[in-house]
Structures are given as structure tokens and as C-alpha cells.
Write a structure and sequence with these properties.
Helices cover about 35% and strands about 20% of the residues. The protein is an alpha/beta fold. Strands 3-2-6-1-7 form a five-stranded parallel sheet, sandwiched between helices. Strands 8-9-12-10-11 form a five-stranded mixed sheet, sandwiched between helices. A five-stranded parallel sheet has the order 14-13-20-21-22, sandwiched between helices. It contains 19 helices and 22 strands.
């Protein structure tokens, strides 16, 4: 049985610029072969059992040679596998997709091209530079800035290219920039022609340098701007002054560390990235289910007996319904019990299961939850509280004080996550982190533990951003000085608080 190889353009950098078909191919692939410029977050859509193979190539640093990649694709295809070959940009715009397709075709392995958004158009667009503009630029060309070094004669027709095309976009050209500038001016392009270099275009670490053909080489050297970058030559570069948008976002240029569990981090990461932030994921905690005992199962099978079921987190919601389904039950098992959600994120998670909470406290604090519950319950009522293994006892203690019976169902535990310890230490050591975010007391304590004896020193050069006063109090007790404390105890509230601080 012969498989199928999809040669997919992964887009220019921003993970959301991949096509719908590209994502579908990733989701169904048995094998994913990805390169250097394909965003790693694309792999989050892969099946858990998918084989992931890195085949990245950088200048003078090739994980695999092109012939090895060709052979790999042929091999996996002949094994009957569905293969997603992820290539930065578009596979047929200097992506060597044609070479890979030729090898597959010769071997009798079926393939399809899945076009992608190409960086010579996308990177300038994110820099506020359109490659065409009525009355200014009616043509553009995409040119390699790095020809095959074994070629005896250049394939670039400089004489015609220099003056016949309005906008020129060079890819892989940073190393040959002196030659590019020299050739264009030698063949008639004015020395005053605007030039822009867009490094890591469409990503939150994007850099843009604007110059002229005459001065661009020395300006790039001064700025120490390195590859990868798109070089744009033409009058359209001047439009950036009016059309720049990406680097106008409130958190553009800010590097922000997210320490919450990876299972919860993606939505928070996207919110920060949407505001222009460069997000470093360095999860300090992770959650895992606890073993269920007979008493736990008895409670799960008798949820109708409670006047109210209280969920304190989105994680608690997910673990509860996982346990409920394993017992062969569904939401009908809750009967007429009222449902309370501590925090709007918890409420949103409940809504995924078709449940609209009856009780949502005004803010995300146990003390507010107690007040809201006391207004709905009376002495003699029974409450089921869904909590992690370690949690504050404010809610059960206060309710019992009012003669309300409380059963606690502990379904998961929060433990230290060391998988991204190196990424965290490296980011803080580099001194480029503007904010580190803490969304719970456990993220504070576990981060401090991960950093060890140097914790306070490493965190001393970055702003501490906490989701609320309880998390902030934990940070202060550890010797940290929070610079940002959100008034609204949600990730949206924390993002807004950071934006306000960045503007100040």
C-alpha cells in the first residue's frame, strides 16, 4: 500500500497564516517532516501518535541534506504513511518543493502541493509595505539572493531586473546584500531607491530596517541585523510610514514569559501575541489526575444528592467530567443540583459541557465565592466541592461554619513541570524578558523552585505580573516585588493590566 505525501506551505512565520487545508493535512498525518522556518506551534495540531521528524536547514548547518529528505519522503510514502512535509512559506517559492515532488513522482509515490502564504509578500505586508500600489508599483518580482554556489554564471538578469520591475523582493539575500545593492545600482537603479529589510517577518520578534540602496549595507552592519530577512527594494517602502500596523500593537517588542501549565497556556499565549508580545512559554506547573477510590466513585455516582456543586477551576471541570464519563454517566447525573463556577474561565469551561452556571461570584476569590454561596444555600444543605489535591480551605471551612455540609472531591494534583526549565533560565539570563506572568500561587512557588538559589537575581531584571492579590501576596512572601497586579482575576484582566503598564 502506497501512502500520500503533502508538500505543505507552512506560511511565513505567524502560525495562523497557514491555510485550512494545510492544517487539515497536519491533523491527519502519520508522519510530519518539518523544517527550520516552520513554526513549532503547528505541531500542536499533530496526532499524539504522529512521528515528528526535524529536517531543518540553516546556512552551513543542515540537519539533513536535500537528497536525504527526498529519500525519507519516498520511504515513508512507500510504507503507506500519510506524510505532511512542512516547509516555511510556499513549497514552490524557493522551497525546493519541486525537487521533492520529482523524487516522489519517480518513485511512484502520490503527492499533492498545498500552497502557502509566501514570505516575500507577507513579510512586507506585516511591515506596512505593499508590494504593489496603484500609480506607484504595477509589477513585482521575487528573486533569490542566494544562488547555487556551483553555478558558473549567475541566473539573475541584473540588467533587465534592475529597471524593468517596480518592486523587488529578495529572499535569502542578507549574506549577499553588498552584491545585490552593487548590481542594482550598476544597472541603473538609483542609489536613493528605498530599501527595507524585514527580519522574522510576521512573527512577534519582527524587525524592520529602512534605508536606501546607497547606504543599506552599512546600516545593516551597524544594526547587526542577521538572516532570515526579506529585502524589499522600491518606492513602496516609503508607504511604511503611513501603513505600518503590526509594530504599532501595544505589546510589540515586549517579551513576556508565561508560567502557567501548558494545558492552559495556549489561550493566554494567543491573547498576548494578539497584542504583539513575543511570548516565551516556560510552564512551571502541570496537572495530572489522581487515582479514584471507592468513596470518590460513590460521590460521583450520587451527585444528585447535593444542592450545589462548586467548580473552582477549568481544570477541575475537565477532570470531573472525565471521571463522570468513565462511570458511564453524563450531565444528567447532576440532576437539579445548582452549579457554581469560581471565575469566568471556569464558567466558560462548564459551558463546553452544556452547563450554564447558576452561581458566579463577582470576582475570582474564595472569599467572594463563600458570600455568593451563602446567599443561595441554607443550613442543612449539602455541597460538593471540586478541588485539586492541595487547595485553600476557605470555602469548606466557611460553609461548615454555617452548618452547610461539604464533601470535597479531589480529582487532580498540581506538580512542578521541569520540561521547560532550560528555556526559562535562558530567557531570564539573556536579560530580554520584560514581564514574567504568574496566574496562581503555585506558578510562583514552582518557578522559584525551578530557578533555585539564583531565583531572585534572575527575576530581578524583569517586571512581575500577577493575576490578583492572592498570587501577588505569594510573590511578595517569596521576596518578589510585583509591578503589575490585575484588578480582574482572569487572563484577559492580566493582559489589560500589562498593556496599561507598558503604556505608562
Amino acid at each position: 500500500m502506497t501512502g500520500m505525501v503533502y508538500l505543505i506551505g507552512a506560511g511565513p512565520g505567524d502560525v495562523k497564516l497557514i491555510t485550512v487545508k494545510g492544517r487539515e493535512c497536519i491533523e491527519k498525518a502519520d508522519v510530519i517532516v518539518y523544517d527550520y522556518l516552520a513554526d513549532a506551534h503547528l505541531l500542536e495540531w499533530a496526532r499524539p501518535d504522529a512521528e515528528l521528524i526535524y529536517a531543518g536547514k540553516q546556512c552551513k548547518d543542515h540537519t539533513m541534506h536535500q537528497w536525504e529528505i527526498n529519500e525519507l519522503l519516498v520511504q515513508k510514502g512507500k510504507e503507506g504513511k500519510i506524510v505532511a512535509r512542512l516547509k516555511g512559506g510556499d513549497p514552490l517559492v524557493f522551497g525546493r518543493g519541486g525537487e521533492e515532488a520529482m523524487a516522489l513522482g519517480e518513485a511512484g509515490v502520490p503527492f499533492e502541493f498545498v500552497p502557502g502564504v509566501t514570505s516575500p509578500i507577507a513579510a512586507p505586508a506585516y511591515a506596512g509595505i505593499p508590494v504593489t500600489q496603484r500609480a506607484m508599483a504595477t509589477s513585482f518580482a521575487v528573486v533569490t539572493g542566494h544562488e547555487d554556489p556551483t553555478k558558473a554564471v549567475s541566473g539573475i538578469h541584473w540588467e533587465g531586473l534592475a529597471t524593468a520591475v517596480d518592486t523587488l523582493c529578495f529572499v535569502m539575500g542578507v549574506g549577499n546584500l553588498p552584491t545585490i545593492a552593487e548590481k542594482l545600482m550598476a544597472y541603473g537603479r538609483p542609489a536613493s531607491t528605498p530599501v527595507a529589510l524585514v527580519r522574522w517577518g510576521t512573527k512577534t520578534i519582527q524587525e524592520v530596517l529602512v534605508s536606501t540602496l546607497e547606504h543599506v549595507v552599512e546600516d545593516v552592519e551597524k544594526a547587526q541585523l542577521k538572516a532570515p530577512a526579506i529585502i524589499v527594494v522600491g518606492d513602496v517602502v516609503n508607504l511604511r510610514e503611513k501603513l505600518q500596523w503590526f509594530d504599532n500593537k501595544p505589546l510589540f517588542g515586549k517579551t513576556i514569559v508565561v508560567t502557567r501549565a501548558r494545558s492552559q497556556a495556549s489561550a493566554f499565549r494567543e491573547k498576548l501575541a494578539a497584542q504583539g508580545a513575543n511570548v516565551v512559554e516556560a510552564a512551571a506547573i502541570k496537572t495530572s489526575p489522581l487515582e479514584l477510590f471507592d468513596e470518590d466513585r460513590r460521590i460521583i455516582n450520587n451527585t444528585k444528592q447535593y444542592q450545589c456543586i462548586v467548580f473552582t477551576s477549568g481544570e477541575g471541570v475537565r477532570y470531573f467530567f472525565d471521571a463522570l464519563y468513565k462511570e458511564g454517566k453524563d450531565t444528567r447525573a447532576l440532576g437539579n443540583s445548582k452549579v457554581a463556577a469560581i471565575g469566568c474561565a471556569t464558567a466558560r469551561e462548564l459551558q463546553k459541557y452544556g452547563i450554564v452556571p447558576d452561581i458566579i461570584p463577582v470576582d475570582y476569590k474564595a472569599e467572594s465565592a463563600v458570600k455568593a454561596l451563602e446567599e443561595e444555600l441554607k443550613a442543612g444543605d449539602s455541597v460538593l466541592l471540586i478541588q485539586p489535591k492541595v487547595a485553600r480551605d476557605v470555602i469548606p471551612r466557611s460553609l461548615r461554619h454555617h452548618d452547610i455540609d461539604v464533601d470535597i472531591l479531589r480529582l487532580y494534583e498540581t506538580t512542578q513541570d521541569t520540561s521547560q526549565q532550560e528555556a526559562l533560565v535562558n530567557a531570564l539570563t539573556a536579560g530580554t524578558v520584560d514581564y514574567i506572568t504568574f496566574t496562581s500561587s503555585s506558578t510562583v512557588t514552582n518557578t522559584i523552585q525551578l530557578l533555585g538559589d539564583d531565583a531572585l537575581k534572575l527575576l530581578g531584571n524583569t517586571k512581575i505580573a500577577c493575576i490578583g492579590p492572592i498570587t501577588a501576596a505569594t510573590a511578595m512572601s517569596a521576596g518578589l516585588k510585583p509591578a503589575v497586579i490585575s484588578d480582574v482575576y482572569t487572563t484577559d484582566g492580566l493582559v489589560n493590566a500589562i498593556i496599561n503598564d507598558a503604556k505608562a
